[in-house]
Amino acid sequence: xxxxxxxxxTLSRDYKQFIRIQDEHDFNEKISxxxxxxxxxxxxxxxxxxxxxxxxxxxxxxxxxxxxxxxTIPGASENLQQTGAYGxxxxxxxxxxxxxxxxxxxxxxxxxxxxxxxxxVEGGRQGKTMTGEIALAxxxxxxxxxxxxxxxxxxxxxxxxxxxxxxxxxxxxxxxxGATYVRGQVLEKQLQxxxxxxxxxxxxxxxxxxxxxxxxxxxxxxxxxxxAEDAAANRSAEQKAIQDEASIDRHGGWGTFIILAFIFVFLxxxxxxxxxxxxxxxxxSGSAFAAIGAGRYATYSDVRENYKEIADMAQSKLEHxxxxxxxxxxxxxNDGMHTKKTFYEFMDAERDRELRERHKEMQRxxxxxxxxKAQAVMPEETVTAVPVSVMVATPTSPQTTAVPAxxxxxxxxxxxxxxxxxxxxxxxxxKKAYIQTLPEDLQLRVMQALKAQKEQAARLASQRNAELDxxx
Length: 472
Known about the structure:
Layout: H1 6-16, H2 24-36, H3 47-72, H4 78-122, H5 148-156, H6 163-200, E1 218-219, E2 222-223, H7 228-277, H8 285-291, H9 300-332, H10 343-385, H11 388-393, H12 398-423, H13 428-436, H14 440-471
Antiparallel strand pairs: 1-2
Helix pairs in contact: 1-9, 2-8, 3-4, 3-6, 3-7, 4-5, 4-6, 4-7, 6-7, 10-12, 12-14
């Protein structure tokens, strides 16, 4: 549009990137998918919960990764063992956080399916539990006539699964028991070394008393030794003290390890709970959630309010730009063209342009599919419709074979246009604008088809009224 200055277009496009051009029907389709999948009101796991979970698991893993590093890289230096401890803690954290999160997600999804199947059983097992998978791109009204449990299983699935949950339980128990066992063995090793060292350092010598008696001192050229019974009793008492101290350390250490194992299991249960609390059960609920603003908008009115806020800001900047352009023209003595274009006009033009591009894309896609289908079916139709003798005598010309293909392509384009009009619902102005963008021959065929549909609906209504008159 030459009525726009380049600066005006540039400014408008800079603000357009902050606006999602989304109509109400598309927004409501995403909401309908989330509602039927049982995910309306849920959201992705918040980043803060991810950080908290990873930090807790990493701190817990560091508690026994240093012990594991001593056996993983035996003979390594202290610095290398610390580096290995960080690596082991990181690996364990990634494995445990991943498994616990997806186990919680699996439990949530299975609970939705189990509840839906329970409703199906209580309803007398009437009909199938699933009429067909409903994708996000499909019209969400396809299964409105079916019960809620059928709608849910069309989007979530029909069979609950607990394989990942069982694998998570197995991994958590192996890590908890294995880490506790290794810790206990390290403790026993330290206590054994402590007891052995203290036993070797026992000195049976009796220190000098206050009365000057020294049994180990030489008197009259002879050494006076402590009696064997007294020395054995003294050694036994000291060994018992050492054993008692080791026993206290052993019980305290094992008690601490059991508490740490309990905390470790509790943290994994917390990770499972977080996976159960957040996330989606529907196969494409995440995409639907992202398409409606990832929780920013609860209704389409919120979308419109956000659009108006950005559009008003863009309009204010555009008017300021236009004023500066006019002032520049005045200062330069140039009586240039002054525009009064608005940001809303720019967005309307962008919508019309995208609608035309979308229609052309759909038309090309349908024509290509029809051509390929016609080429695939053409030999079979020729063989069944034309006798063999005629086929041999008169070969088919390329122009003759192209006619059915073109007719099929035109029919496909007509069907695609009617589907688009049906998807627009009661938006009469939108339908008019869309029909105006079609080629003239396609416009004529669409109007004829709509007229035929309207006449057919009128006939059916008249026939129905006549039948009601007869019955009543």
